[in-house]
Design brief:
Layout (H helix, E strand, L loop, with lengths): L1 H18 L1 H21 L3 H33 L2 H6 L5 H30 L8 H23 L5 H11 L1 H6 L11 H7 L3 H13 L9 H21 L6
Helix pairs in contact: 1-5, 2-5, 3-5, 3-6, 3-7, 3-10, 5-6, 5-11, 6-10, 6-11, 10-11
């Protein structure tokens, strides 16, 4: 019963987004444009090879968070959330349903980024491609739940976008994408340990640069899975009916 209700909600979300042609175009076009600009900005292949894992983890988090947060906020502003919460469907059903629905499109963007990075930008990597995909799936699962949770605090799309500097940018600066964590002050190193992107970057680096398997990055995977579960529970608890 629980799964049926969640799948019904997910199916409605998928159909709604597919009908929105502009959104679908942006979902496909945005990662292509971003990755093209990145490829042109780093003409030296060795540099791009090194930063590619961090970029993949960061973009998976960013795109999934943005897509989910704004789309979920639109659901609330249109009154869909109020109708769902007035029905016998539980809050957890709603969160899981939206997670599955948004996850499909977040996964599509992630696949575009990974395949473009490897086959168009010709980034060299070690390890298996399918393990990279699996690790990315865990990252976007947490990012989708994070987007659902954060959107409950926004009343419009502008406010949702303003959460990006508060939620995403600190993780980018502290996870080792721009500067090695080991060279940061001790208090920033401790802060980086509670950020999910830190474990996403570290895990992908171990897979793509060191050739490790998923079994070797099981700790990073466990942290990311735990983060996704915690975010889904908190999102269900804090869910509101409308946009106000």
């Amino acid at each position: 019963m629980f799964l049926n209700q969640a799948l019904t909600i997910a199916g409605r979300v998928i159909q709604q987004l597919i009908r929105d042609r502009r959104t679908m175009i942006l979902i496909v076009l945005m990662p292509l444009v971003v990755m093209t600009l990145i490829g042109l900005s780093f003409p030296e292949g060795t540099v791009l090879d090194y930063i590619a894992p961090a970029l993949l983890a960061t973009l998976a988090l960013f795109f999934s968070f943005l897509l989910t947060g704004i789309s979920f906020l639109r659901e609330r502003s249109q009154g869909t959330m109020e109708r769902l919460m007035a029905s016998p469907v539980s809050r957890l059903d709603i969160v899981v349903g939206y997670l599955l629905g948004f996850f499909i499109f977040a996964l599509l963007q992630t696949l575009i980024v990974v395949l473009f990075t490897i086959y168009v930008l010709d980034v060299q990597y070690h390890g298996d491609l399918w393990q990279i995909f699996v690790f990315q799936i865990v990252i976007i699962a947490g990012a989708v739940n994070l987007g659902i949770f954060i959107s409950t605090f926004a009343r419009n799309e502008f406010q949702m976008v303003q959460f990006i500097p508060l939620i995403i940018f600190p993780q980018i600066f502290l996870c080792g994408v721009i500067w090695p964590v080991e060279q940061m002050p001790n208090y920033l190193q401790w802060l980086s340990k509670i950020l999910p992107l830190t474990y996403g970057v570290e895990g992908l680096r171990n897979i793509m640069l060191a050739g490790q398997s998923l079994l070797d990055v099981v700790f990073e995977l466990a942290v990311l899975v735990g983060f996704a579960i915690i975010m889904s529970i908190i999102a269900a608890i804090t869910m509101r009916r409308g946009a106000a």
